[in-house]
Amino acid sequence: MSKTIVPGEVIQVSGRVRRITAPNPGLMTGPGTNTYLVGDDEIAVIDPGPAEPAHIEAILAACGDKLRWILATHTHPDHSPAAVALAEASGAVVMGNTLSQNDGFQDDSFAPVKSFAHDECWVTKEFTLRALHTPGHVNNHLCFLIEEDGLLLTGDHIMQGSTVVIIPPHGDMKDYIQSLTLLLDYPLRALAPGHGHIIDDPVAQIEGIIKHRLGRESKLLATLQKTGVIDIERLTSYVYDDVDPSLHPVAQHSLLAHLLKLEKELRAARDGDLWHLTG
């Protein structure tokens, strides 16, 4: 495996899975969106990525005439738009879950002919794929477990080298932590994230993310205890004082998700734009 992720390079990440990374590096995408090719004789493309011509060409070249299915973990614009061009070029079947309403962050072009229920197994001649409904980053998010390899394709539920941003209303922190905990019930050998390298210590990684999120929540509660009534902008500067201030506008989305979680649990409340502890 290359130490540096190179867009367009085909990397074998497990016995049945290859990775091609899109040329869309950035603050929210890291080195780029990872597209996974599962199978050899009949191929499923998971997270086709953005509709970048070079990326589409790389996928088609790697698949040849064997592309049969196109799946998306979710419908953010860096994960699913290339499905249209790939389906037109190959006749492959598009599969995945959609949202009933677009929050302004979704890909409206994604039109699957099949959706997945939680824990549904989809079997081909070469592999078994288990779909896990993992809301949190977004309500329609799925992770896909390639059972023979113990490899979980995590989409944006887990990213290597970066923290996932939770943007309400379709992003939900309470759901996110519950979905992370859910993954610990499955026999995982490795994680294949939507951005970054393969993660070989899945349990430690998942438990570490849960600990980090709950630690951030504890810091939020302590800050509210000290400050009393406060607006979210000032609250962000306290709770994320360990993060570069230039990233605070992004962090504010996740902080709102934390506050909404506490509001559901009746531990915090708001008056207009101001937040405070209950009781």
Automatic annotation (TrEMBL):
One of its GO terms (molecular function) is hydrolase activity. Pfam families: Lactamase_B (PF00753), WHD_BLACT (PF17778). Keywords: Hydrolase. SUPFAM superfamilies: Metallo-hydrolase/oxidoreductase. InterPro entries: LACTB2_WH (IPR041516), Metallo-B-lactamas (IPR001279), RibonucZ/Hydroxyglut_hydro (IPR036866), Sec-metab_biosynth-thioest (IPR050662), WH-like_DNA-bd_sf (IPR036388). It comes from the Bacteria. The keyword Transferase does not apply. Residues 32-195 form the Metallo-beta-lactamase domain. This is MBL fold metallo-hydrolase. It comes from Oceanicoccus sagamiensis.
